[in-house]
């Protein structure tokens, strides 16, 4: 009986050693017992752990940098559309006949540069916003994999992609809310003949902080989460699913057609559901202090004054922007990731 037990322990050690050598990733999650493991293997574990941690850090940095590159691409392509959308959402009734009229008035008043009014805040802010968003998305996916060690498929489900997308919006809002607050105020100034109130993004932040501290700077955060949570869920899920359908199985090459189309459709999917909370966010962030007591109060007053249709103001420019801006975003992200994988 004693000999059988010793034999069993010996076989157990052999099996553990075999598993460790064949699948180092499995070994990382295996709970080793130092009393039965050979000394050599136990001394190798910290090295494996160190290598894995280093690899994880490198991947996080790549996700962060790639997201920033994608953000810059999105701003350069999409800002004129975004300015048009914001002005339609915040202007008093009758100020514009439509999106084309917004563009005409902007060009007549400020020339071509008028379409890029307020571009500095998103360039300064969208870069870290997208960097944080794509880093948080990849981190959320890693957490989902870690929470489901016995999963049958390496691919995440649509629901899991959506969950990772929703989670990515939470840390991103810490950067998004103040940046969008400054951007909106710069975009709407002068549209009602009120003249120029702010000299630039830093002047906006200085005035907001003097007016009400961080509470004023972060006004509209709830509306931002209401927009970006569900929006990011649809955004990332749509991209992953469409790109997966268009990419040959097992291919590791950058499929430009798949990336551009999937990225564009991801933007369309996001803005299809994000416009109503975006309208409320823009109104809350551009209105004088005390106009609205919160997100729901803004929704109630907006519907009472302008009808339910007001919640869809700016849909045209948002959709016109959605495809090209987000195609550029994902192209920037994927191309920069490939570049970093090749040279770093």
TrEMBL record:
In terms of InterPro entries, this protein maps to: MCP_dom_sf (IPR023395), MCP_transmembrane (IPR018108), Mitochondrial_Carrier (IPR050567)
GO CC field:
mitochondrial membrane
User: Where do the Solcar repeats lie?
Assistant: 58-143, 156-245, 254-339
Region Disordered: start-end pairs: 33-54
Q: Name one GO molecular function term.
A: O-acyl-L-carnitine transmembrane transporter activity
Q: Where are the transmembrane segments?
A: 254-274
Decide whether keyword Transmembrane is in the record.
yes
Q: Which keywords does the record carry?
A: Membrane, Mitochondrion, Repeat, Transmembrane, Transmembrane helix, Transport
As for subcellular location, the record says: Mitochondrion membrane
| Membrane topology qualifier | Multi-pass membrane protein
Q: Which GO terms describe its biological process?
A: carnitine transmembrane transport; mitochondrial transport
The similarity comment for this entry is: Belongs to the mitochondrial carrier (TC 2.A.29) family.
Q: Sorted alphabetically, which PANTHER family does this protein's record hold?
A: CONGESTED-LIKE TRACHEA PROTEIN-RELATED, MITOCHONDRIAL BASIC AMINO ACIDS TRANSPORTER-RELATED
Question: Could you identify this protein by its name?
Answer: Mitochondrial carrier
Source organism of this protein record: Phanerochaete carnosa (strain HHB-10118-sp)
